[in-house]
Amino acid sequence: MTADLLIVGSGFFGLTIADRCARELDLKVQVIDRRDHIGGNAYSEIDPETGIEVHRYGAHLFHTSNKRVWDYVNQFTDFTPYVHHVYTTYKDEVFPMPINLGTINQFQRAAYTPEEARAWVVEQAAMLEGEPTNLEEKAISLIGQPLYEAFIKGYTAKQWQTDPRELAAEIISRLPVRYTYDNRYFSDTYEGLPVDGYTAWLEKMADHPNITVTLDTDFFDESQPWNKADVVGQIPVVFTGPIDRYFDFKHGDLSWRTLDFESEVLPIGDFQGTPVMNYADESIDYTRIHEFRHFHPERDYPDDKTIIMREFSRFAEHTDEPYYPVNTPQDRERLLSYRELAKDEANVLFGGRLGTYQYLDMHMAIGAALSMYDNKLAPHFTNGLPLDGPGLVDDGV
Ligand SMILES: O=c1ccn([C@@H]2O[C@H](COP(=O)(O)OP(=O)(O)O[C@H]3O[C@H](CO)[C@H](O)[C@H](O)[C@H]3O)[C@@H](O)[C@H]2O)c(=O)[nH]1
């Protein structure tokens, strides 16, 4: 068994590296994944009972403002014109998310103009002093106390089970606040869903004679040929698994949130009339419900059944799938010590959401992989430059 490069993990980051190295540099690339399917958390499959495409690891919506990433992904799939919208249920009433003029006016039973709404929010945020330093302060500074209490506090408590004053302000900065009736969830230039589904797209990326993907193969299992002990130092490795796992948790665990999903097939054509319904009340123990048929209104799905998935969030144990980096001050300290170790790990680059301990959306993972290819892998394989450093941990974000 020979290869020029081993990639551990077949998610978007790993497959982007595999594609570039195989197609551009004509390298023999071996990809391994410990799961029984490719694609990491972007994997989707057809539910056998309804024929509806289900995202096994939660809804994945593709969006980017990066033209290079958009052109790149369009080589492998066409995109539907899907535009993501989210609603949230609070005290048995449904409001549009992210918070916009419609949300504010419905909440206040008012007909505020944009300027009046702004003035009202400023008034409701008046108790804050100084620069916001955490999620709670940041949220109140953006939307004021009453909207925070209604739409953010309970949802965030369920999603993070961490005091919002200990969470990073950036978490909430992901959500726009708009003083118009525009309730698009994302503000990116390009958006859509892969016409033939995520798995077809991911398979197309891997479909090249120079790329071999071997599933059910754990890098840390020494009984299989592509294991860490035998491979590191022999050929270059791009590692996209958890960085703390790579170093055997030597400096302690990095904390993650994991998600549990409960699927249900219902004998009705439409359960909630929209793809994602958030639940803001803390008394409802799931954070949201996905109804997958609504991601593809252009498809011919049955009109007498539908599949829904309730999403629950909790702290991850070693055996759980990691989803969201919690990123407490202790995590950040540990991450720095892992990055130091990674720098000394010759011929191993760390990338992707797990390898860098960063919440990367799909387009960010792809963008970061393209940068790693440009800045590290292509110079190494074409000009013999050393493969050093921890990869591009901050790139593409
Ligand atoms: O109704 C909400 C929505 C969000 N938040 C807070 O805002 C943060 C960021 O919100 P995101 O929508 O980015 O949260 P997720 O990461 O769970 O969202 C995921 O699902 C979204 C679609 O529903 C988008 O696809 C997004 O990119 C994807 O990461 C959340 O952690 C939470 O603290 C709330 O309090 N209430």
From TrEMBL:
<dbReference type="GO" id="GO:0008767">
    <property type="term" value="F:UDP-galactopyranose mutase activity"/>
</dbReference>
<dbReference type="Pfam" id="PF13450">
    <property type="entry name" value="NAD_binding_8"/>
</dbReference>
<dbReference type="InterPro" id="IPR004379">
    <property type="entry name" value="UDP-GALP_mutase"/>
</dbReference>
<keyword id="KW-0285">Flavoprotein</keyword>
<keyword id="KW-0413">Isomerase</keyword>
<dbReference type="Pfam" id="PF03275">
    <property type="entry name" value="GLF"/>
</dbReference>
<keyword id="KW-0274">FAD</keyword>
<protein>
    <submittedName>
        <fullName>UDP-galactopyranose mutase</fullName>
        <ecNumber>5.4.99.9</ecNumber>
    </submittedName>
</protein>
<feature type="domain" description="UDP-galactopyranose mutase C-terminal">
    <location>
        <begin position="150"/>
        <end position="359"/>
    </location>
</feature>
<comment type="similarity">
    <text>Belongs to the UDP-galactopyranose/dTDP-fucopyranose mutase family.</text>
</comment>
<dbReference type="InterPro" id="IPR015899">
    <property type="entry name" value="UDP-GalPyranose_mutase_C"/>
</dbReference>
